[in-house]
Backbone:
């Protein structure tokens, strides 16, 4: 609700203004003199101030001067109310930084028009300033990154991108059961750029939509290519940004990629993060349901870093739960992490989900996961993310996790 502070010493004028403003649904605060006016302006920071020019002791000019010197109140739109119509008075007020003035008695229409004009200008200014600061806070390095990313997408230079694949292994059998696609960007100008840098940038600029679509298309073609040479039928998990996921065209695109490549949907798993689902829970759930009906699998990525509980997730169509790397790191030695990880595995199993531990780097971590019946693992201990051809070799060689 828009908050208006009225500073006016004449009670009848004050009451009249109050009635008019409240009838228009403004929240109003009133001050009977300049001194109270200044302190109320600082303590309540209203959206607009109406202030009488002529008041005993502290007059309107002094109130304006005081408020313009205080950073909190310096930019609040300020409208003078005056009974005099001498040009010199208006001039002085405007020179001191008032935004407008109204000559008493004014009509309801004049009052509302003056207020609405000021509020609108203020809103425009605020929007503009916000955009400006958002632009300026991008460091020179990020600006360069953004420029280059734009160029890649606009000029369709997708050859600068490459999809890597990190194997996911069943802990009990030691067999590779799936792989996660992870995007790599080798920029001729900037060298290798990490996805932790360019993905958030792509998300904030909307560039993630064409990028994620390129990844999806690429992955679907790759799954089919591997099936065609008869090596293996591997499920591939693809990271999907919330922006892409909520795009009205998303499901249609997925259907198209599956159809063009004659791919069974069960070979595709989409990784969503919990915070992403919570951002637009109703929309996300509808899309998830539709995907699952089609047979596409859904994984929750980085689980444990957001705020949702497993109890909440029980109503969502989720096939796989990926425990965030943070909990896995040093899990065997850290009693808190081991308690949480154990509980997550057990609860996820009760909800019929498959559990994958992310970022497994040591034998001790793997042993802990094995002892606690975690289904699968992914991490440097077994393999780093690999280019498609290297993963293929890896599979030909029948690499397995030692029992
Ligand atoms: P993520 O989906 O959680 O992917 C796992 C990250 O952990 C990857 O980082 C992977 O290289 C890294 N990792 C795997 N095993 C280990 C390990 O044992 N130790 C350590 N320290 N790290 C390990 P990466 O490739 O840098 O990707 C970072 C994030 O960028 C991904 O996190 C994902 O959220 C995002 N991302 C990557 N590719 C795509 C993409 O195509 N589309 C979208 N929207 N996001 C992507
Ligand atoms: Mg992931
Ligand atoms: Mg993850």
Residues:
């Amino acid at each position: 609700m828009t908050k208006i502070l009225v500073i006016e010493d004449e009670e009848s004028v004050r009451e009249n203004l109050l009635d008019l403003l409240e009838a228009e649904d403004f929240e109003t605060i009133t001050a009977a003199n300049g001194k109270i006016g200044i302190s109320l302006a600082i303590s309540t920071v209203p959206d607009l101030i109406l202030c009488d020019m002529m008041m005993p002791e502290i007059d309107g000019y002094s109130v304006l001067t005081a408020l313009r010197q205080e950073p909190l109140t310096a930019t609040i739109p300020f409208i003078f109310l005056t009974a005099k119509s001498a040009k010199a008075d208006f001039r002085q007020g405007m020179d001191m930084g008032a935004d407008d003035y109204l000559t008493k008695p004014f009509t309801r229409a004049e009052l509302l028009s003056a207020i609405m004009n000021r509020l609108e200008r203020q809103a425009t200014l605020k929007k503009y300033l916000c955009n400006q600061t958002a632009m300026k806070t991008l460091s020179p390095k990020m600006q360069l990154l953004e420029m280059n990313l734009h160029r890649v997408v606009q000029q369709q230079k997708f050859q600068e991108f490459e999809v890597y694949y990190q194997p996911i292994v069943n802990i009990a059998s030691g067999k590779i059961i799936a792989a996660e696609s992870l995007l790599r960007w080798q920029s001729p100008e900037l060298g290798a750029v990490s996805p932790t840098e360019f993905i958030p940038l792509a998300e904030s600029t909307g560039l993630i939509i064409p990028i994620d679509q390129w990844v999806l298309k690429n992955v679907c073609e790759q799954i089919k290519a591997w099936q065609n040479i008869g090596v293996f039928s591997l499920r591939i998990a693809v990271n999907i940004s919330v922006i892409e996921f909520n795009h009205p065209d998303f499901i249609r695109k997925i259907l198209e990629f599956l159809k063009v490549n004659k791919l069974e949907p069960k070979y595709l798993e989409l990784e969503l993060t919990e915070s992403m689902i919570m951002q637009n829970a109703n929309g996300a759930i509808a899309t998830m349901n539709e995907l699952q009906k089609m047979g596409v699998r859904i994984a929750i990525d980085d689980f444990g870093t957001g705020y949702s509980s497993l109890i909440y997730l029980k109503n969502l169509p989720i096939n796989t739960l990926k425990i965030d790397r943070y909990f896995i790191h040093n899990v065997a030695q850290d009693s808190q992490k081991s308690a949480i990880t154990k509980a997550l595995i057990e609860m996820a199993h009760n909800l019929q989900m498959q559990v994958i531990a992310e970022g497994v780097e040591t034998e001790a971590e793997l042993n802990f996961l094995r002892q606690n019946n975690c289904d699968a693992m992914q991490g440097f201990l077994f393999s780093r993310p690999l280019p498609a051809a290297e993963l293929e070799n890896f599979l030909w060689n029948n690499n397995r996790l030692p029992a």
Q: What stands out?
A: Residues 301-302, 322, 358 surround magnesium ion (ligand 3) (CB under 6 Å).
